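Data availability (excerpt). The following record was deposited with the supplementary files.
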Amino acid sequence: MNSDLSALGGKFVILDNVDEERVIRVMESAVSIKQEREFLLWTQGQLYSLLPHDIMVCIHYNESNQLVNLELLRGRQMEPKLVDGLCDPISGLAVRLVHYCHESVNLPHFFGSKSEDRQDNLASIHAEINNLGVGDVLVHGTEKVVGGSSWFLLFGAKSTNIDRQLYFFQLFLPYLHLLLLRVLLLSKTTEMKQAVGVLPLSGREQEILHWIAEGKSNVDIGALLNLSPLTIKNHLQRIYQKLKVRNRAHAVSLFKSLSSSRR
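Predicted structure:
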């Protein structure tokens, strides 16, 4: 039997042939994921085979460190009180665990649910984990990179080998981060295109208006669409005429009002 010795914080995790095949399947199956439901099925299927858990919470912060998205992924119904306790964007356990881990611990990090009689500054956190009945918790997150940072929390982690779970969590963090960004971007782009679609604009003009609403400059949009900034400027003038607006800000305002009215 072949084996792979992979280091994690000075410790080694042994992977046998079955583990290696599962790792490859998890990675290969991630390539085609674009929709939130596909992401959910992947976390509850292929990823679950190596990182079994009850609930995953995904949190994304923008480059200004503002929380812009919090997703709860689970394969079962949950009581509203538990959902609020975990996922409130201000006081929920998930957000507070992220804040603690970001400031105080090495990642990935494990919070055991059976840590009774603690006297340190984590005593209240462990007590809350016990009270909510969410089991052991694994937390991992990225540094702040282009597009912001992403954090993932696995509640009800199921393993007697924590080092093994932490290793897999670290291995798949880049996949989780990129998949979350892809799902969020495509979801937002779909909403924007639906809003733009009601306007009397050509396909190219719709693309440009979409990127204007994203805060891109003429130079940025030109680079994205392989056009010169002057060409983008000319397109913008036609967009203003068709929408009967005076400038960029008015066009974005009209676009956003249409986006809101279609939700």
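Summary of structural features: Confidence is low (pLDDT under 50) at residues 1-5.
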